[in-house]
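Q: I'm building a small set of examples for a reading group on sequence design. Run inverse folding on the following structure and report the sequence directly after it, with nothing in between.
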């Protein structure tokens, strides 16, 4: 059971109220599927109904993390632990927030946050000895943290072995996490292929192999297509498979199939138009079809981007490239100015704007 699902059965004694619990459960599903804006609305509705619902507090912390609001997420996660101190799920969420903050902090502050992360992750395992997610985080901690903060490579190896025994279907995640952190990238494709061979019905395994296979230079797009299609059959409400398939189809100039896929994505995942962005990017960069890419970028810009998706600044920069290639220089400059206005630190747009106006 994933920690997101575990949040749905977090026990908080007499605080459980049906309406708030159902709202938090809906948020868990939305988070699992990557629908962050809808998840935020659901969990904030739960909190409005029951401010002391530890489930909703922990869910809110996760959503705030996705929005990059880590200070607020920390407060919510700490509140969830305060409300439900014996909940492994609450401690796990607090550990995840601390881990994110440690990664963004300066050296001295990061050590303190990393120590807190370790404490909360270990508390998660103490409360839930079968927990895999906390162990995955601890693998990274023990490989990256200096000895002064408690990092220990041997412990990371032991965590990998424990996960393989506790949850064989997720052992590949432990091995790949270890390989990534130790820069053993040559081991990764074998790990991913083995995961799919052993768990062909596991969405995470399918999409991990699909995404590893999709870069053009790997010359493995047939595997990307095969595994993304399998993932789509398993989870049709998640954007990932549509996005990967859009890259494959655009790169192969299979335009009719691509447009059918994008229509299907719009119906299944209407709040995330990322497949249109990727279709436009690949149509422009790989296929050289500027007019077609313009159409995809304009569709992507027709609504706000989902959290963690490509920004509108990036989309306007790409649209400017498509317009310039069609000889529409003034329109391209206008898009570049719009991109820089949206994100004054977006260097690719700033660079192109300077080139086209100097």
């Amino acid at each position: 059971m994933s920690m997101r699902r575990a949040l749905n059965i977090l026990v908080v004694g007499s605080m459980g109220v049906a309406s708030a619990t159902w709202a938090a459960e809906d948020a868990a599903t939305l988070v699992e599927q990557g629908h962050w804006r809808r998840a935020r609305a659901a969990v904030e509705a739960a909190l409005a109904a029951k401010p002391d619902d530890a489930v909703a507090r922990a869910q809110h912390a996760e959503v705030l993390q996705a929005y990059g609001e880590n200070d607020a997420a920390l407060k919510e996660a700490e509140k969830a632990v305060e409300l439900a101190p014996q909940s492994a799920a609450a401690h796990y969420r607090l550990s995840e927030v601390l881990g994110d903050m440690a990664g963004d902090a300066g050296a001295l502050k990061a050590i303190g946050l990393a120590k807190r992360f370790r404490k909360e992750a270990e508390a998660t395992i103490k409360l839930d000895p079968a927990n895999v997610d906390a162990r995955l985080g601890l693998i990274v901690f023990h490989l990256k943290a200096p000895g002064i903060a408690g990092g220990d490579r041997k412990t990371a190896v032991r965590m990998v072995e424990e996960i393989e025994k506790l949850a064989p279907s997720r052992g590949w995640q432990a091995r790949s996490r270890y390989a990534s952190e130790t820069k053993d990238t040559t081991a990764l494709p074998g790990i991913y292929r083995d995961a799919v061979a052993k768990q062909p019905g596991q969405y995470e395994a399918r999409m991990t192999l699909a995404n590893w296979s999709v870069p053009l230079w790997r010359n493995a797009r047939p595997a990307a297509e095969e595994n993304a299609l399998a993932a789509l059959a398993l989870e049709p409400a998640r954007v990932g498979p549509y996005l990967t398939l859009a890259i494959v189809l655009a790169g192969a100039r299979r335009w009719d199939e691509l447009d059918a896929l994008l229509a299907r994505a719009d119906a299944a995942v209407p709040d995330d138009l990322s497949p249109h962005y990727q279709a436009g990017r690949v149509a422009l960069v790989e296929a050289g079809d500027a007019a077609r890419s313009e159409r995809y970028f304009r569709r992507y810009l027709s609504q706000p981007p989902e959290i963690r998706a490509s920004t509108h600044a990036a989309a306007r920069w790409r649209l400017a490239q498509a317009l310039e290639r069609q000889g529409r220089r003034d329109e391209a400059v206008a898009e570049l100015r719009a991109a820089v206005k949206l994100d004054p630190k977006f260097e690719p747009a700033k660079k192109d704007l300077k080139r086209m106006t100097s």
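Residues 1-25 have pLDDT under 50 and may be disordered.
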